Amino acid sequence: xxxxxxxxxxxxxxxxxxxxxxxxxxxxxxxxxxxxxxxxxxxxxxxxxxxxxxxxxxxxxxxxxxxxxxxxxxxxxxxxxxxxxxxxxxxxxxxxxxxxxxxxxxxxxxxxxxxxxxxxxxxxxxxxxxxxxxxxxxxxxxxxxxxxxxxxxxxxxxxxxxxxxxxxxxxxxxxxxxxxxxxxxxxxxxxxxxxxxxxxxxxxxxxxxxxxxxxxxxxxxxxxxxxxxxxxxxxxxxxxxxxxxxxxxxxxxxxxxxxxxxxxxxxxxxxxxxxxxxxxxxxxxxxxx
Length: 289
Hints:
This protein has 289 residues and is an alpha/beta fold. The chain is built from 9 helices and 10 strands. Strand 5, helix 3 and strand 6 form a beta-alpha-beta unit. The radius of gyration is 18 Å and the shape is globular.
């Protein structure tokens, strides 16, 4: 993607982050060279995807006047933790430790700036949960290729229901889910897989160690939401997005479905849009205005 000198984004800034339990990772911040509005997006990656893979999206947004900070999940990329028998975590650590640290770092980097939270796949789900737990902090939500994993929302639901029982079992036996070997996500902590699979089986969000009723908290959100679905995304069928948005009855939702023609010929699936993110960036920047 080429930019004119006036719109070229600045070089990404690497911000070291330390959580309350001592975990470390890097926040990647990409800003417009000449910011004209004080708006920003904190971006949460998909399960198993390192933050750096979203740099094309961050650069495209910076060219459109939007600052983007890319969070790094525990156990992935720049994180100093790796899942194993002696190292485990779940949604509680991701929400209450890691995202709390990223939002604090973002506030330090961008004082007085209004910001939304967005994410890809599981990142979109956890963005919703964080906003539900901290409604004053998040001024909007952006969901890209994201939906609830409830088994009834998918084609061939019974095979998926079986997978939601087998994945936590495998993670417990191995000490982590060997996602790299299985071709699904990364090497994931068994606590994350347990929380993810629980939502897949029941259709409700809950996390070990979080006492709040997460679905009840979601139902109180009045946050504006941009929901972008890719038309060939079999990992997030329309019913999966519907199930997630159904948990936000008071949100003001703008929905958009992108096709191959909008993605410069790239297949409109769960991951291909990341290499040609102009259409996604345009939609986010227009919504942010």
